[in-house]
Amino acid sequence: MDITRRTRRALAALTSTACLALLATACTGTNSGGGQDGSAAGQDVTITFWHGWSQDNEVKAIADNVAAFEKLHPNIHVKVVGNIADDKSEQALRAGGDAAPDVVSSFTTDNVGKFCSAGVWADLGPMLQKDGIDPAKTFPPAMLQYSRFQGNQCSLPLLGDAYGLYYNKTAFAAAGITAPPKTFSEFEADAVKLTVADGDGFKQLGFMPNYHGYESTPSHFLGQYGPGYFGADGRSDIATDPKVAAMYTWQKGLVDRLGGFDKLEKYRTGFGDEFSAKNPFTTGQVAMAIDGEWRTASLAEDKPDFEWATAPFPVPDDQAAGYGRGYQTGTIIGIAKGSKKQTASWELVKYLTTDTDAVVSFANAIHNVPSTLEALNSPKLDADANFRTFIDIAKNPNSSTTPASVNGGAYQVSMQNLGYEFEAGRQTDLKAGLTATAKEIDAAIDQAK
Amino acid sequence: MATASTPVPAALRTKRRREAARTAAFLSPWLIGFGVFFAYPLVSTVYFSFMKYDGFTAPTFNGLKNWDYVLNHYPSFWTGLGNTLWLVLVMVTLRVAFGLGIGLLITKVKTGAGFFRTAFYLPYLAPPVAATMAFAFLLNPGTGPVDHLLGELGLPQPGWFTDPDWSKPALTMLAMWGIGDLMVIFMAALLDVPREQYEAAELDGAGPLQKFRYVTFPNISPIVMFAVVTGVIQTMQYYTQAIVAGKVASGVIGGSGQQFEPGYPHGSTWTLPQMVYNLGFQRFDTGSACVVAVILFAISMAFTSLLLRRKSGFIDED
Fold this sequence. Notes:
The structure holds two protein chains of two kinds.
Chain A: H1 2-24, E1 45-50, H2 56-72, E2 76-81, H3 86-95, E3 103-106, H4 112-117, H5 125-130, H6 135-138, H7 141-146, E4 156-168, H8 169-174, H9 184-194, E5 196-198, E6 201-207, H10 218-222, H11 242-257, H12 261-268, H13 280-283, E7 286-292, H14 294-302, E8 308-311, E9 328-335, H15 342-354, H16 356-366, H17 373-376, H18 385-395, H19 410-423, H20 430-448
Parallel strand pairs in A: 1-2, 1-3, 6-7
Antiparallel strand pairs in A: 3-9, 4-7, 4-8, 4-9, 5-6
Chain B: H1 10-48, E1 51-52, E2 60-61, H2 65-73, H3 77-108, H4 113-125, H5 128-138, H6 145-152, H7 167-177, H8 180-191, H9 195-203, H10 208-236, H11 240-250, H12 272-282, H13 286-309
Helix pairs in contact in B: 1-13, 2-13, 3-4, 3-7, 3-8, 3-10, 4-8, 5-11, 8-10, 9-10, 10-13, 12-13
């Protein structure tokens, strides 16, 4: 019996020690990177670049850009991997290891705060400084804002997106509308005029205001108001900022004016995929839409059977002087903090983001807004008038973006959720809803810190 | 009263040690698997639920903060818990009842049983993502054929995956469509019921319902219990169909300023496993994700224990 008890004790001790050892060393990733990869001395270095582009023309455009870079830097070889979503790249960066990418790009600027604060992406500030690049003189203010977080420039803008109004000129002419609306009251009147009923549904809808109507989101609408989202103390100020309440109220009014939430929602379910020729603006199901500059390329390719044009999205009546502004976002690119090849990686990032010819050719190829001040004014830029609308929106000093937050776009999810409740009439007390949402946002940020 | 222990002879000690070593060697594959893939993750999950850990930097102890956040501040915890429990209660019950019903019908079919068996089993083989996308297309209230047909017949046209009141019933329909797994095990159990028991019941004047109540059910009750327990465990892990249905029906791809609504519509398809993914692998708040995982485990254990404790009144011990 003594032996059995001794053995049992020894086994228990061994198991406990093993458990404690396992727990103490549990799965923590590495964040140590390095800059001395030998590339500056001409040594051959291969870096891995993960991006999210997937369409043939986009993949070709980025491949051409990388090929041009490799020509300039023959000792730096770039292994390009496309069609990578944010979740996947972030998980890979946190896990670390040799297979993790050195350079990563993301379409979701909302995540910059998360990337910077977690230390997953390297701070590019020292590299910019070393090469004498002044970010404020190189990148437009809104783009600079969405690519850094609390002083940490962990990413740089790699082309941008600006949001404006797409309108069906043929439908405008049929409704007797001669010019695109500039204020919300003009916009609402036009949306009503352009709406053609068909039984319980619509033959044509002037505009789809419901928050699930693709780009008709609270953040995009709020781009026309320019709220701060957070106060100086870093707490959510949506409950006290009158611009936020004004947006929710305006959108709800438009929903009610155009037939009510349920009727619009049923019509919305008949829309095709947003990024396809079945997009409701392309098919003529809606006569006006808020959308990004990339739609100009899709429309040119899909050739809808009506004339269309673009303009800045209207602004609130009391901010008519701000007409021309819009919501701005874009693609960002950064370097993995754990990368051992940061010198070579920086050369690639620097080339893609600051070389004017590289930025302009890439912007022309995929119909995105260029992301440097020089490129925005480049004569080589696509001269198409519909595309130029978005260049002007990007240049507009009042254009704004959604600020980076330590937990990414979680605060926007909270604001969207309030929007869904309010537009559907499930939440009727907007003030109480905004107060509760602000608390929810603050609690999530506290948890993430 | 103490008794003096008799010294064990050295030869016997050696023999016992060898036997113990042999037993441990035979058990080791299972022990290692259990330790690495169950015990360690379970202990770690509980441990990390009290830690601030983002999967990247070293974890630090933060007491009950994660628990407080999940239970009191995370916006959709209670919605997700309610949805998960709804699915456990309704989906599991209906799946078991439907699987048993189909099994009973097919065992009674005289001709074409093979065809019906195949027809009911095949949907089970459809990949969950493809099946869910097909359902979302068929049940689309704007363009789907189901609502079109209902409209032609003058019947109400539900919003299915776009209506919070209908989304979980629609997911339940999808689960019942893929009933093949349960149908097969119920058929095997039903065919195993001794014929003479039915003959004896008939001699006693039992009708179809009485035969089911007093002959069929007692014989297949262990299989019913198996179906319920595995159904509860599977449904507690319900993830793929719910997230695919929500994404497809909302039409939102997601991007800057355009976040996907978790559990579309109106949080009605939001389940606890989605919460684990959201917290752990999107927000990288591993500690809070572990809190949800522990709660999920506790509920699964509670359901399973309750069901197994009740088995004495449910399964014939003989």
